[in-house]
Task: structure prediction
Amino acid sequence: MYAIESMPAPIQAFSYLVSARYFVTILKGIFLKGVGLEVLWVDTLFLTLYATAVFFLATRKLKQKIV
Result:
């Protein structure tokens, strides 16, 4: 893994679409810094929204295959 800050600007912008960005930020905050969700709530919100969207799309696709 590389620091996002050291990446070129287009790749930094693309990283906002990757759920691993938020997951790694939450893990670093909890394990290395010892902060709680009151600090990491934005990343947790984005990760939850991403998971909800993927779940919705997966169930919709599964219903299409079944019917």
